[in-house]
Specification:
Layout (H helix, E strand, L loop, with lengths): L6 H8 L3 H8 L7 H16 L1 H4 L5 E9 L2 H14 L7 E9 L4 H14 L3 E5 L4 H12 L4 E4 L10 E5 L1 H16 L4 E6 L6 H17 L3 E5 L7 H11 L6 E6 L4 H10 L6 E5 L3 H8 L5 E4 L2 H15 L11 E2 L2 E3 L8
Parallel strand pairs: 1-2, 1-3, 3-4, 4-5, 5-11, 6-7, 6-8, 8-9, 9-10
Antiparallel strand pairs: 10-12
Helix pairs in contact: 1-2, 1-3, 5-13, 6-7, 8-9, 10-11
C-alpha cells in the first residue's frame, strides 16, 4: 500500500499497533484480510481528513457506528466531511464502522474493539436491542461517551440523542394521507427496515395512532423487516400485497423505495400517494420523477454536528453550549428538493 502518512497516524486512525500497521503496509505474513482492509480504510479516512491533520488543537478520535444501507451511510459520511472543517470545539478524527446488516454479536464486538483500542466518543445508529443497551452501559462505566443519532436507545445511559422527533414525523405523514384520503376506504402499505430501530418504531406508532384518529376507515398493512435493502424489501412488499384491496398508497419509513415501487409495478399497482424519509440520492431522483410525492427530511449535518458537540462538551468542566438535539421534520416536495 502506497501512502504519504506517518505510520503513527495510520495506527491511530486504524486503532492498531505500529507493528500491526507496519506488517499490513509491507505485505508481511500473519496479517488477516480484515486487518489489511481496516488499514486501507484508515488511509482513505486520512485522505479525507488531510486538511485537519496539520491544524493544532485538541484532537479527538470519534468512532461512528452505523447499521444502514450503503446509500444512507454514504450520506452520513458526506455530512461528516462537511461538518468537520467548520467544527471549532476540537479537531475531530472520525473512524467509520458501517454495516448494511449486522447481528447483535457483530455490533457488540465492534463496540468492544473500539473501547479496547481507545476512543474519545462513539456516535451510534443501531438497533435498540438488549445486547446493545448492555454494551452502552458498559461503555458509560468506562467514561466513554455514547451519542445515539437518528434512532435512539432510550432509557440507557447514553450521553444524548441527536436526531428527528420520529413520533411527530409519523403523525406528519398521517396528516398528509388525511389530506388526500380522509373519508375514503382502502389500504395503505407501511414499511420499516426493522422495528428494532427505535426511530422507525416511533414513526410507525405515531402514524398508526394519528391515522386511526383521522382516517379510521383506512386499513394499514405492514410489510416491515427488509432492512431497507432492495431484494429483501421487495420480497416483504410482494408478500404483503397478497389479497390487498383498494390499494391507495405507501408510507415508507425505512427506505428501499425503488424496490418497493418495482414490487408494486409487478402487481400493476400505482400508489396515489407515496411518503418516504431521507433525502438520499435515490429518493431525490424518485421525487423528481414523480414516483414519490413527499419526503420527510431532517438535516443529517445538523444532527451529527450536535452529536460532536455533545462529545466535545463531555470533556469540558463548564456547562455545554445549548444546542438543539431533537429536531422536527421538514416536508420536501418536487418544488423544494435540493439538487445535491
Amino acid at each position: 500500500m502506497v501512502n504519504k502518512f506517518l505510520h503513527k497516524e495510520i495506527a491511530q486512525q486504524a486503532g492498531f499497533s505500529l507493528a500491526t500497521v507496519d506488517r499490513a503496509l509491507h505485505g508481511r505474513a500473519n496479517v488477516s484480510t480484515r486487518t489489511i482492509q481496516r488499514v486501507k480504510l484508515a488511509l482513505e479516512e486520512l485522505v479525507e481528513q488531510e486538511g485537519q491533520l496539520a491544524v493544532r488543537g485538541q484532537r479527538m478520535f470519534v468512532d461512528i457506528v452505523v447499521e444502514a444501507p450503503k446509500r444512507f451511510s454514504d450520506e452520513v459520511r458526506s455530512a461528516v466531511q462537511y461538518i468537520l472543517p467548520r467544527f471549532s470545539s476540537a479537531i475531530i478524527r472520525p473512524r467509520y464502522h458501517f454495516f448494511e446488516e449486522a447481528t447483535a454479536e457483530k455490533i457488540v464486538k465492534t463496540l468492544k474493539n473500539i473501547s479496547a483500542r481507545g476512543s474519545q466518543g462513539i456516535i451510534l445508529k443501531v438497533q435498540n436491542i438488549p445486547e446493545v443497551r448492555n454494551e452502552i452501559t458498559r461503555l458509560t462505566k468506562l467514561k466513554l461517551p455514547v451519542v445515539t443519532v437518528f434512532t435512539d436507545c432510550p432509557g440507557t445511559e447514553r450521553l444524548a440523542y441527536a436526531g428527528l422527533n420520529n413520533e411527530n414525523a409519523g403523525r406528519t405523514a398521517a396528516y398528509l394521507f388525511a389530506q388526500r384520503f380522509q373519508g375514503q376506504t382502502g389500504t395503505v402499505l407501511t414499511t420499516t427496515s426493522h422495528l428494532q430501530f427505535q426511530g422507525e418504531d416511533a414513526r410507525a406508532k405515531g402514524f398508526a395512532h394519528e391515522m386511526n384518529r383521522l382516517c379510521p376507515n383506512l386499513d394499514l398493512i405492514d410489510a416491515s423487516g427488509g432492512a431497507g435493502l432492495a431484494l429483501s424489501t421487495a420480497s416483504k412488499i410482494t408478500d404483503a400485497l397478497q389479497g390487498i384491496n383498494n390499494f391507495l398508497g405507501v408510507y415508507s419509513m425505512g427506505g428501499g423505495n425503488a424496490a418497493i415501487l418495482m414490487a408494486l409495478k409487478a402487481k400493476s399497482l400505482v400508489p396515489e400517494l407515496f411518503v418516504a424519509h431521507d433525502l438520499d440520492r435515490e429518493n431525490r431522483q424518485l421525487l423528481r420523477q414523480g414516483h414519490v410525492h413527499y419526503i420527510l427530511h431532517h438535516e443529517l449535518q445538523s444532527n451529527l454536528d450536535c452529536a460532536f458537540q455533545h462529545i466535545a462538551s463531555f470533556y469540558k468542566s463548564k456547562v455545554p453550549t445549548k444546542f438543539e438535539s431533537i429536531v422536527d421534520v421538514q416536508i420536501i416536495t418536487i418544488h423544494n428538493c435540493p439538487r445535491a
